[in-house]
Amino acid sequence: MSSHQAFAALQSPLRELVAGAALPLGASEKDTAEVAAWIEKAAQADFVKPDALSSLDAQLVPRTYLVSNYLTAADVAVYGALRPTFAQLQPAQYHAHPALTRFFDHIQSRPAVRTSAAALAPAFDLVSLDLASAPAVERKPLEAKKKDKPAKAADAAAASAAPPAPAAKAERAEARKADDKEAKPSKKKEKKEAASEKPEGKKKADGGKAAPAPADDAGGPVPSMIDLRVGHILDVKKHPDADGLYVEQIDFGEETGPRTVVSGLVNYIPIEQMQDKWLVGVCNLKPANMRGVKSFAMVLCATSKDGKEAGIEVIQPPPNSKPGDRVYFEGAEYEDKTPLSQLNPKKKIFETVQPGFTTLETREAAWVDPATKSVHRIRTKEGVCLSPTLVGASLS
């Protein structure tokens, strides 16, 4: 069935909602076929049965949108078909489908959807969802996967790597100041937290001794301890109590929904450029209270070698990336390692590794080993992460 045939099968007023949003039916032949298939599903009467909701929830765990990584008519059709059901659900019911609830709330808030819905009121009025009381789910680090070795970086790239500028580090440090009212943890509590961060080893079958866990932080800091993932900004606002901070809701492909992230970028990147932004996030830093808002990750940015006033840019993942895609460092010693579940602030792992982060002449993000000068590009399975324009920049 073509997109136009599927669209014609939608009932009123859902058909008018999709038409009024005027969103694409697909940027490629493959995308167009997928959009048509989703619209056809949305037109079916049994689309919102309980078992269908569970299936849809599972499909949406790694996705922001139904087709590729952009908003299409399929998202609007599915949102519209779900809207009568979601309007009747109690919090416990929609909390049981966290990925689907995240998707529904995101799509109903898109400007194109709200504009179309306004002409059809009250059929598609906003559904108020109690997301604040959603049960917490433990976040797990991404597992490393075996893959073909990527092509080696050119040896000349190492020579082009400039020393990292300290400006972005200072900006992040300023943004990460804790709330003055937050009490300092006692030494006893710190010891307990430190102990809880150490992963438990597995017992050997023959001797009963514990084997070292793959994500142990024993030894010196290495970049593979850092949990980098592809993220997608779903919402961004200025911090209510800090002029230089943004508060973002970033989708990292987790069942728990988007993470709240606070970034000190107001004076360097306009809010319009932050909206709907794809990025690389540092996801295993210890959560920090930043002027009363707790931040659960950090946006990886490039700062010009001439200082922050000369430019700060968000590091871009490669095309076709999805929220939660693993970002890793090239090199046999790093690319198949599992990151730590949380970096121990006392060991200053990120602070030790960060001076080697830079952008090459190709604008590719990389870590340069300070001892060997070997270059390890930062990439996903889809390709290498880039800074839009900056060369020789520092990353933090």
Ordered list of secondary-structure elements with their pairings:
Elements: H1 3-8, H2 14-21, H3 29-42, H4 50-60, H5 73-86, H6 91-95, H7 98-108, H8 111-118, H9 155-160, H10 167-175, H11 187-197, E1 202-203, E2 210-211, E3 228-238, E4 246-251, E5 259-263, H12 271-274, E6 278-282, E7 288-290, E8 293-295, E9 298-299, E10 301-303, E11 312-314, E12 326-329, H13 349-353, E13 357-359, E14 365-368, E15 375-380, E16 383-384, E17 394-395
Antiparallel strand pairs: 1-2, 3-4, 3-6, 3-12, 4-5, 6-9, 7-8, 10-11, 10-17, 12-15, 13-14, 14-15, 15-16
Helix pairs in contact: 2-5, 2-8, 3-5, 4-7, 5-7
Could you describe the 3D structure shown?
- With 396 residues, the chain is an alpha+beta fold.
- The protein is 28% helix and 17% strand.
- The protein contains 13 helices and 17 strands.
- It has helices at 3-8, 14-21, 29-42, 50-60, 73-86, 91-95, 98-108, 111-118, 155-160, 167-175, 187-197, 271-274, 349-353; strands at residues 202-203, 210-211, 228-238, 246-251, 259-263, 278-282, 288-290, 293-295, 298-299, 301-303, 312-314, 326-329, 357-359, 365-368, 375-380, 383-384, 394-395.
- Strands 3, 4, 5, 6, 9, 12, 13, 14, 15 and 16 form a ten-stranded antiparallel beta sheet that branches.
- Strand 3 and strand 4 (246-251) form a beta hairpin.
- Helix 4 packs across helix 7 (98-108).
- It is elongated, with a radius of gyration of 23 Å.
- The model is unreliable at 148-172 and 177-214 (pLDDT under 50).
